[in-house]
Amino acid sequence: MAEKEHISTFVKQPTALRMAEDILGCKWSFTVLQLVRQGICRPGLMERSVEGLTTKVLNERLRKLTRYGILQRLAYPEIPPRVEYHLTPFGQKFVGILDQLSELEEELRGETSNDQSGTVISSH
Fold it and tell me: How many structural domains is the chain composed of?
């Protein structure tokens, strides 16, 4: 019985690797993070900035990123209501890791293109 409790706790609290997998597995989550980094913090502007991004998908991604603690939702008591999303300190670290992955991908692409051009790539 204690084992079942441990499993349900594990499932409820995702690890950083599971979060990365979930976010990287969805092109829209990555897109939303890029928009926030560019200063596009309001959902309406996000939706208008990216062709194909629907309100439903955007709201799902924003909720997920907020639930993971990557984004912070700020609601202003105004009429009409105004909502903005910003990176949390954890979100800034997380995006830094995504940047490193992008750099690694570029490096690998460069090695692959060198390999295809006949250049020998040493593993040492």
Answer: 1
Q: Domain range holding 97?
A: 7-112
Q: Is residue 1 part of a domain?
A: no
Q: Could you tell me the pTM of the whole model?
A: 0.74
CATH number of the domain enclosing 68: 1.10.10.10
Full DSSP string of the chain:
-HHHHHHHHHHHS--HHHHHHHHHT-HHHHHHHHHHHTT--SHHHHHHHSTT--HHHHHHHHHHHHHTTSEEEEEE--SS-EEEEEE-HHHHHHHHHHHHHHHHHHHHHHHHHHHHTT------
Within a domain: 94: yes
**Residue pLDDT, tens place only, 92-102:** 999 998 889 88
